[in-house]
Write a structure and sequence with these properties.
mainly alpha, 42% helix, 6% strand, Leu-rich_rpt, Cilia- and flagella-associated protein 410, LRR_dom_sf, leucine-rich repeat, Leu-rich_rpt_4
Length: 222
């Protein structure tokens, strides 16, 4: 996610289901208002240190990360104590009562997570995460969940593609094709927020040409 260092004006980021463990690249995204990090590899709530400097952050989805721990109440209270401006956490609205209780039950984070550098420049946590990934069975690495990718689209309020669009593939191939398509779509949606009117017009013209080409091809096949 190092690309975020070059996107200071980005407003919505969805990185769900991506194996992310380090949130440091996000601390310069001062206009960020919505951040979706569900089901990653964030092991410590100390990573919230990098989000405390984001004045406009209102929506955070952090569920299904190792940092959530076995105590849901303590996790939620700690997040709200450090990010009291949140209006929604893990798809659940934040109440005034929770914010008050967070001052009592939450743990204040005052320093970034400790990471020991290694020779190749990776942090220890990144290296261990990568090592863990290489030991996973290949079938698990290649498995793609249609439910997960549709959930990502739901976060961005985009429309999911019907399963019958991939009817010519096997179930696993269809899901993987859907996953790849969603990754591309999510990247485009995020980067479009950085474009001005002229850039958007160029994209519109390109899309129109692409659609015309697809329609012509379908007519020829029929």
């Amino acid at each position: 996610i190092s690309i975020c260092r070059d996107l200071p004006n980005i407003e919505v980021i969805t990185f769900s289901v991506n194996g992310i463990s380090d949130l440091e690249p996000l601390h310069q995204c001062q206009n960020l208002s919505e951040l979706y990090l569900r089901k990653n590899n964030i092991t410590s709530l100390d990573e919230l240190f990098y989000l405390k400097a984001l004045p406009r952050l209102r929506v955070l989805w952090l569920a299904e990360n190792p940092c959530c721990g076995p105590d849901p109440h303590r996790y939620r209270m700690t997040v709200l104590r450090n990010l009291p401006s949140l209006q929604k956490l893990d798809n659940q609205a934040v109440t005034e009562e929770e914010l008050s209780q967070a001052l009592v039950d939450g743990v204040e984070i005052t320093a970034p997570p400790a990471r020991r550098s290694v020779e190749n420049g990776w942090s220890e946590s990144s290296a261990s995460s990568a090592a863990g990934a290489t030991t996973e069975p290949q079938s698990e690495l290649l498995s793609c969940s249609l439910e997960e990718t549709n959930r990502t689209q739901e976060e961005l309020d985009t429309k999911s593609v019907p399963r019958d669009k991939y009817s010519s593939f096997s179930p696993q191939e269809a899901d993987c094709s859907h996953k790849k398509r969603n990754n591309v779509l999510n990247a485009i949606l995020l980067l479009m927020k950085e474009l001005d009117a002229e850039g958007l017009e160029i994209i519109q013209q390109t899309v129109v040409r692409r659609l015309q080409a697809f329609q012509k091809k379908e007519l020829q096949e029929e």
